[in-house]
């Protein structure tokens, strides 16, 4: 299929991001070891203004999907289409252009910000790189801080003066700086305590409502995924085993792996969890 043909299809079905039959492998350990296939034909789509939650256990390949979309790992085969443009083997120039539309928020707010750069400089950097003038950049930094509910004097301070939750707000503000269409959120709240998790998730939802940005939201935590996602894809050993509406996948999972994920989730509602476990065990005994 030519690049043009894929472009037309992607635009026609209204997807912002389409991943088709994506395969990624890494060299095995040892000289003659075969490569390890980490993604084994993953397909997904994210619509404009939509959050696709990507959930799966450790090592299932969640982060690798995000990294492939961002061009940070080589793709063995398959197609990644963003806004009608094939990007799985984007050139450095294409990547620079794409960085305006596709941003990322990483898990660890303690390592994702430059410790020697004042918050204002961290936020103005992407703006200046896009050709925004200094004065306008300063004004927009003020807006960004306001949008993520940080005080305007934060601009002059260093990351070490902020808590984990506040730093993650800065990371979100940086991702938002040049008005992206898609943010890959890679476990953005996993390093935060429960109360802070909630405020950062609320912020992400508020931003989506206001700007219409799409999220590919990676997490191992089903409760977090249920809270933020419109649709959910469940990844297991490099393959998507179940996908669908968030309430359906997390409330009435069809695949045994999704059910086991649900059962191993921390217990928010003991009665609900017990009923689910009993139903699961009855079904297993009957099969
Ligand atoms: N650059 C790399 N080189 C070699 N192996 C890698 C590389 N990146 C990831 N892997 C391997 O690929 C597999 C999937 O990793 P990935 O980080 O995508 O999983 P994950 O689902 O995000 O897991 P976690 O929740 O633990 O971060 C793991 O076995 C990991 O060791």
Automatic annotation (TrEMBL):
Protein name, per record: Peptide/nickel transport system ATP-binding protein
ABC transporter domain mapped to chain residues: 17-262
Recorded superkingdom: Bacteria
Organism (species): Actinomadura algeriensis
Signal peptide as annotated in the record: none
Keywords: ATP-binding, Nucleotide-binding, Transport
Family designation: Belongs to the ABC transporter superfamily.
SUPFAM superfamilies associated with the record: P-loop containing nucleoside triphosphate hydrolases (SSF52540)
Alphabetical list of InterPro entries matching this protein: AAA+_ATPase (IPR003593), ABC_transp_ATP-bind (IPR050319), ABC_transporter-like_ATP-bd (IPR003439), ABC_transporter-like_CS (IPR017871), P-loop_NTPase (IPR027417)
MF-aspect GO terms: ATP binding
């Amino acid at each position: 299929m030519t690049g043009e043909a894929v472009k037309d299809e992607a635009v026609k079905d209204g997807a912002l991001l389409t991943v088709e039959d994506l395969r990624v492998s890494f060299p095995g350990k040892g000289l003659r070891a075969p490569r390890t296939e980490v993604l084994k034909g993953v397909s997904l789509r994210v619509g404009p203004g939509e959050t696709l939650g990507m959930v799966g256990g450790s090592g299932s390949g969640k982060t690798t999907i995000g990294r492939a979309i961002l061009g940070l790992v080589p793709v063995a085969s398959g197609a990644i289409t963003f806004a009608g443009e094939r990007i799985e083997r984007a050139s450095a120039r294409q990547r620079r252009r794409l960085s305006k539309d596709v941003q990322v928020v990483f898990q660890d707010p303690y390592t994702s910000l430059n410790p020697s750069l004042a918050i204002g400089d961290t936020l103005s950097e992407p703006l200046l790189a896009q050709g925004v003038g200094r004065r306008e950049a300063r004004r927009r930094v003020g807006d960004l801080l306001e949008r993520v509910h940080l005080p305007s004097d934060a601009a002059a301070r260093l990351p070490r003066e902020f808590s984990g939750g506040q730093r993650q707000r800065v990371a979100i503000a940086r991702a938002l700086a040049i008005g992206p269409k898609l943010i890959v959120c890679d476990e953005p709240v996993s390093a935060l305590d429960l109360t802070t998790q909630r405020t950062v998730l609320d912020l992400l939802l508020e931003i989506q409502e206001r700007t219409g940005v799409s999220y590919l939201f990676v997490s191992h935590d089903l409760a977090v995924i249920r809270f933020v996602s419109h649709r959910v894809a469940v990844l297991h050993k490099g393959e998507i085993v179940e996908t669908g509406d968030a309430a359906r996948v997390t409330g009435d999972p069809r695949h045994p792996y999704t059910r086991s994920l649900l059962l191993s989730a921390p217990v928010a509602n003991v009665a609900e969890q017990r009923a689910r476990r009993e139903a699961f065990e009855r079904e297993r005994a009957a099969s």
